Amino acid sequence: MSNLDREASVSVCGGRGFVVAEPVRELLSPRHVKLGESTEVRRLLPNLGRRMVGAWAFVDHYGPDDIADEPGMQVPPHPHMGLQTVSWLHEGEVLHRDSTGSLQTIRPGELGLMTSGRAISHSEESPKSHARYLHGAQLWVALPDGHRHTDPHFEHHATLPTVTAPGLTATLLLGTLDGATSPGTTYSPVVGADLALTRGADVRVPLDPDFEYAVLSMSGDAEVDGVRVLPGSMLYLGCGRTELPLRADSDAGLMLLGGEPFEEELVMWWNFIGRSQEDIAQARADWMNGSRFGEVKGYDGSPLAAPELPPVPLKPRGRVR
Fold first, then answer.
1. Nearest CA among 186, 122, 180, 184 for reference residue 158
2. What InterPro entries does the database record attribute to this sequence (predicted)?
3. What pTM, to 2 d.p., does this model score?
4. How confident is the model over 75-93, as pLDDT tens digits?
5. What are the chain's domains?
6. Does the chain have fewer CB atoms within 10 Å around its N or its C terminus?
């Protein structure tokens, strides 16, 4: 999914200087962003005061939206660099096309994982014949320096491992949780899991104390470590935890995101993650002149134009504003 802001702001993130080394409960409110003509998303990362959780650098939550009489998601071809996109659905379908030739419909419970590496472009759209509701999350994982120039590729995993406990089913998108490991390719220590809670659930999820964590609420009424987290909000949890208490007063859906604090400082602008002003400026120029990012074939529409670069220098300065 693209950052469609026409006046894209600069996010300076990464580095361990602002990682919270002990458990905390920091509730993050979303920023509402229009995505194309008919989709509005709630942007949780980057957030005022909190730019990353491990290598997770971007989190959008959208829906549930009634698109029975609407085109649904329509995101034209756009570029990415230096990151992985993670597509996750609770309802609906998204048709993915990219410049490597991938064409894949992603459905609920299936992982769509695109590694941009040095450069890729893709589009996302609701199929012409689609389900009534669209509900999901789009996330980015920053690539470490040793892998940010890797070859672009796309993975689709229709079946993912699960961990179960009374009242809980945890589906592994990325990384390892309680002995289960996702088939999705990762380039730094991260974990991403969908947590489905049934009404009355009262469970504890094992965590790695060296990771920092956050929980995104997708649906329902749940408490995370005693904090009520409403759908469309996210609770940052810091590091130093060996387990996470969860309670649900109704059926609820959460996403657990975590990873080792990302050491490198980054510059994130529009749909690019780089390390310097020069990285970003070159990527923008390459996209606008039609080189490097390839062509998305089959999408009915024109590619997105990049916003203008801001008049101030782009400098990586750390994890928080």
1. 184
2. Pirin, Pirin_C_dom, Pirin_N_dom, RmlC-like_jellyroll, RmlC_Cupin_sf
3. 0.92
4. 999 999 999 999 999 999 9
5. 10-259 (2.60.120.10)
6. C
